[in-house]
Give the backbone structure.
Amino acid sequence: MLHSNQIEEIPSRSEGIETVANFTSWMQEVDQILGQIGVDHRDLPDIAYMDLFEGGADAREAAQEALEGAGAGDEVLDLI
């Protein structure tokens, strides 16, 4: 039997929609930053973008993480 302190709150539908909208905007920012070097997130190996977003990373940090995951060196990271 679950006790009331063991039940996680489920976000409302509107909170879920707002999160998706914010994540979508954030990803557009990530792609704008990556666009400075002629790529977007679809050109790079997958990383946990949602985890970065939920963890409070800004778009530049996510872009850098994506490029590092693709093996980019400092010379590329310095361009963004």
Summary: The two ends are 52 Å apart (CA to CA). The mean pLDDT is 88. Residues 15 and 21 are 10 Å apart (CA to CA).
